[in-house]
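## retry 2 of 3
previous attempt timed out at serialization; input unchanged, resubmitting
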Amino acid sequence: MRIGFDAKRAFANKTGLGNYSRFVLEALTTFQPEHDYLAYTPKNRQNLFPAFPESAIHFPESFLDKKLSPYWRYSSITNQLKKDHIEVFHGLSNEIPQRLQKVGIRSVVTIHDLIFERLPHLFKSIDRMIYRHKFKSACERADVVIAISEQTKRDLIELYDIERSKIQVIYQDCNPVFKEKKSQYETDQILSLYDIQEPYILSVGTLEERKNQHRLVEAFAALKNREFNLLLIGKPTPYIQTIKDCIARFGLEKQVKLLHNAPTEHLPALYQRAEIFAYISIYEGFGIPVLEALHSGTPVLAARGSCLEEAGGPGGLYADPYQTKDISHQLKTLMNDAFLRKSLIVAGQEHIAQFTGEHIARQLADIYKSLT
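## retry succeeded, writing output
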C-alpha cells in the first residue's frame, strides 16, 4: 500500500504539530514497514527529521507550485499524488487537499484540537475564520477523522456536527528522549547549569494566557511553603509580564524561576529530578507535557475540564484551572504526601503503556487498510 502524508510540519516545526508528525511517520516506518510511506513537504531545510528516508520525501515539482507552496498543499498536490499512485493520503495537521475523492484517493485527517473555538478571545478573528474553514472542510471531506483525544472528538461532534462513527480516537506519545533514565551525574550537571535548587515543582509550556501559569504561582504562594521551589519553563509571550507581576506581588523572586531557552535534551533531567509536575492549562487538545512527566517518573497535577485527565489518567491529581484554592489544595496534598507521589508514579507507568509507538502504528495501519 502506498500512503502519502502532508508532512510539512514534520520538516518545519520543532514542537507541537511537528512532534506529532515525526512521531507518526517514525512509528509507521519502524513498526509497519511493509507499506510505502511518502512524505510531502514544500521544503526540508532545518534537518529536524534526519531519520526519515530522503528518497521518500517529495517536494513541489513545477515552478509555480514551488513559488506558491500554500496553494500546492491546498489543491495542486492532488495531481502529484495521483501520479505517484498514492492510495491513501493522511493530513497530519488538521487539513487535506481538495479533489482527493475525485481522483480516487482515500483520505484521513488528524484533528488536534478546536481551542480556537473554545477560547476565541485568544485568536485573531481572521485566524479563526481560516482555521474553521480548513478544519471543518477537511473533516467533511475525509473518509476517516482521527481525533487525538476523546475531548477533541466531543468538540468535533458538538461544534462541527461531524458524524460520530467517522471519528476514531488515536492517542500519541512524546519524544523518546523522555523515556531514557538519566544518571545522577547527568542530572546534577543540568541542575547546576541552571542553578536550580531542590525540591522543586516543574511546569513546562509556552508562557501564555491559556497555560495559566499565573494561577499556578498564586496557588504556590498561598501555601507559604519555604522548602519547595517552582520552576516555569517555556517560550515567553507578552503574558510573561502577568507572571512576573504575580511573582513580585507575593515576594517569590527567590522561589520561582523562569527559564526560556532550555533545549529539549536538557528537559528529561529537569523532569526526572522534579518532585511534582504541574500543568494547569485551561484547555488542551491532548497535553504531551503530561506524558513527558509520566515517562520521567514524576507525579502530575493537571487541570480538569479538557483532555488532561485522559493524558494523565491515574498518574495524577486534577484541579479546576480557574480555582486557585483548588489548585493550591491539590498541590499541598502532593507536596505533603511522599507515599501518594510514589503510588501515582506507579499508576502513571501502567497508564502510558497505551501510548506506545507500536500500538499506535498498528491502529493507524488498520485504518489505512480498511480504506483500500
